[in-house]
Every structure is written in C-alpha cells, then in structure tokens.
UniProtKB/TrEMBL annotation:
This is Pyridoxal phosphate homeostasis protein. Keywords: Pyridoxal phosphate. It comes from Leptospira fluminis. The lineage of its organism: Bacteria, Pseudomonadati, Spirochaetota, Spirochaetia, Leptospirales. Belongs to the pyridoxal phosphate-binding protein YggS/PROSC family. One of its GO terms (molecular function) is pyridoxal phosphate binding.
Length: 221
C-alpha cells in the first residue's frame, strides 16, 4: 500500500469515528523525501508537519504540483534561533511551551507581519523528556487569553502528547484531561493531540488535529 492509499484509508477511518465534525490530518513529513509529500498532496492531504524548520522550507518551497494548496505546521518546540524562518511558509506552531517562547515568537511575527496560529503545549504526563506547560499553569494563562492574541499571533488551541509507554489507558486519560481543560478554560480553542500509534484514541477524545507520520508515509528510509 502506498502513501496515497494509506492517507485515504486513515481519512475514511477518522470520518467513521467522528462523522459529526471535521478532524484535520497533519501528515508529519519530517525526514521524508519530497516525492512522498507530493503523493500525499495529490491524494488530498492539505496539512503537513515539520519539526526542523529549514528542512521544511527546502522541501515545501517548490513542490512542483500546480493548483495544490497546503498548510505547513511546525510541530517541534519553538527555538529562538529559527523564528525568522517561520515567516512566509509556516501557518501554525504546535510547540509553544513557555511564555518566553510565546513572547519571542509574537515579537518576530509582528515585526515581519506574518500571521500564525499558536498551540500551547501542555505536559500532562510529567515526563522530563516532554516540554510544555504544567497543567496548573494553564488556568492562569488562559484567564488572560484575550490579551495573548494579536493581529499576527493568535492563540489557536492546546497541544499534548501521550505517554512514552504507549499505554492506551494512560493515553486516554491524558487526552481526556486536555479535553477537560479546553472545556473548562478555553472552549473556543482547538485540540492538537494524537500520532500514528494513538490517533484513534485522540479522535474519540475530541482532537481537532492529529499528527500522523509513519502510518501515512511508512518508516523512514
């Protein structure tokens, strides 16, 4: 089964799980060759995710596919040294895990007049290997949610990752917890959660964006 078939199969599966509302698949194309991206694009994929900013720029700057629009998401932690490279290509950042990162990104976007949607990363597993805000920080931050928005830097929603163990019970608890935080403190926000191994749980727990790599593109060569 090729990239196109895998993408379309996952799309149909997600639609069967959540027929009442739309879930956007972010095809995580990091370390994947451009030709596989083109296959996904021709299959109808609109959203793509990269965690290495420069690699994304080089891969997506000229895909050679006429009349095919796409939306590029940065899915790794925001790093100050690469902020200027977001401009002109990336539409979303899913890894804002500190107020300092938010402020720095906001200044860059306002300076360059480039609009992006931002997801706050919340660390709900307590693992040191994962960055992000602690759960107890979120109510205080979202209480000032209207002050976070600017013309160029808008708060889109919340992002989290499941436990490294992959335990489905713990994964569901984490995803459910982020959904509860959204309901309690930011009902207008969207959720970004779920990857190749746990996107079905994420969809059932209300995710709006799922970040799927190997299940679409296959293992990296």
């Amino acid at each position: 089964m090729g990239v196109s078939e895998r993408y379309q199969e996952i799309q149909r599966e997600i639609e069967s799980l959540r027929s009442a509302s739309r879930v956007s698949i972010i095809a995580v194309s990091k370390f994947q060759p451009q030709e596989k991206v083109v296959q996904a694009l021709r299959a109808g994929c609109l959203h793509f995710g990269e965690n290495r900013v420069q690699e994304g720029l080089e891969k997506f700057r000229d895909l050679g596919v006429p009349n095919r629009d796409f939306v590029l998401h940065h899915i790794g932690p925001v790093q100050s040294g690469t902020l200027r490279k977001y401009v002109g290509m990336y539409s979303y950042a899913h890894g804002v895990g500190s107020i300092a990162s938010w402020d720095e990104l906001k200044k860059r976007l306002e300076k360059d007049k480039w609009k992006m949607g931002i997801f706050l990363q919340v660390n709900l597993t307590g693992e040191d290997s994962k960055s992000g805000f602690a759960e107890q920080e979120i109510p205080r931050i979202l209480a000032k949610e209207s002050n976070l928005h600017t013309e160029f830097c808008r708060l889109e929603g919340l992002m989290t990752m499941g436990p490294s163990s992959g335990d489905p019970t713990e994964t569901r608890r984490v995803f459910h917890q982020l959904g509860r935080i959204r309901s309690d403190y930011f009902p207008a926000g969207k959720l970004s959660m779920g990857m190749s191994g746990d996107y079905r749980i994420a969809v059932s727990e209300g995710s709006d964006f799922v970040r799927i790599g190997s299940a679409i593109f296959g293992e990296r060569s």
